Amino acid sequence: MVAWSDQERSIITSIFSNLDYNDVGPKALIRCLIVYPWTQRYFASFGNLYNADAIKTNPNIQAHGTKVLHGLDRAVKNMDDIKTTYAELSVLHSEKLHVDPDNFKLLADCLTIVIAAKMGSGFTPEIQATFQKFLAVVVSALGKQYH
Amino acid sequence: MTLFLSAKDKATVKTFWAKISSSGEEIGTDALSRMLVVYPQTKTYFSHWKDLSPGSAPVVKHGATVMAGVGDAVAKIDDLTSGLLSLSELHAFTLRVDPSNFKILSHNILVVLAIMFPTDFTPEVHVAMDKFLAAVARALSEKYR
């Protein structure tokens, strides 16, 4: 079980309560598909991903980016047991989606970059540390049920 | 021989660097400050510093040194291996920084670039800079073994 200070909890809830999911979610996913193009392997059914502009304007990617970001809501609400909270999602990513768990870190890094761009200097080193700790726990939980 | 950088990558890096190089010291200081806070294990390389807090004098000085090295790498982007030879020997034989830390510092440089240049640091610039920093890291670890 991961220990969270009161300050860390309030940083995470604050970031997520001030989030425009429809903006940040797609931006993070788009960035991931462009910066780490091999991640496009999971989106063959999404249509045109042939170049950066196609990715940026693809409506399926828009929708999916928002969906993925909302997927983090349950972790925010259950910070004391993200592992159990995500057991089912982990099975889904392993058994149904067949996502290489190393890819979770890539998306997490892109989300960090997008949040940093949004918050500017408000994304202090301490806030960055807390946000990355949160994402690391999420990433670990999502990989837990792979076998 | 340049490692994995296309002509487009190099052009993107050079163009972006021209925009941001005047902020080099600030970028370096912030990136280093963040690295020491977010990845505390990196502090083990700086036990000889009196103050490791964000923006402290040794951090400012060293941040500038590191970014000057990055700027040098941009200028030598067509042959990083020979261009960064002495820096590579320094890191291999004297500093002996575990290469995993290059990735960590690169990540923090990218975070700072996103913060300072949110409109210019597009996904396309991001991928070029990420590849460039990886190439620099690779050149710096050439002599390790």
From TrEMBL, chain A:
Pfam families attached to this UniProt entry: Globin
Sequence ranges assigned to domain Globin in this UniProt record: 3-147
Gene Ontology molecular function terms on file: haptoglobin binding; heme binding; metal ion binding; organic acid binding; oxygen binding; oxygen carrier activity; peroxidase activity
GO biological process: hydrogen peroxide catabolic process
GO cellular component entries: blood microparticle; haptoglobin-hemoglobin complex; hemoglobin complex
Keyword flag Heme: yes
Keywords: Heme, Iron, Metal-binding, Oxygen transport, Transport
Family note: Belongs to the globin family.
Protein name: Hemoglobin beta embryonic-2
Lineage, uppermost ranks: Eukaryota, Metazoa, Chordata, Craniata, Vertebrata
UniProtKB/TrEMBL annotation, chain B:
Keyword terms, alphabetized: Heme, Iron, Metal-binding, Oxygen transport, Transport
GO molecular function terms listed in the Swiss-Prot or TrEMBL record: haptoglobin binding; heme binding; metal ion binding; organic acid binding; oxygen binding; oxygen carrier activity; peroxidase activity
GO biological process: hydrogen peroxide catabolic process
Annotated TM spans: none
PROSITE patterns registered for this protein in UniProt: GLOBIN
Family: Belongs to the globin family.
Protein name: Hemoglobin subunit alpha-2
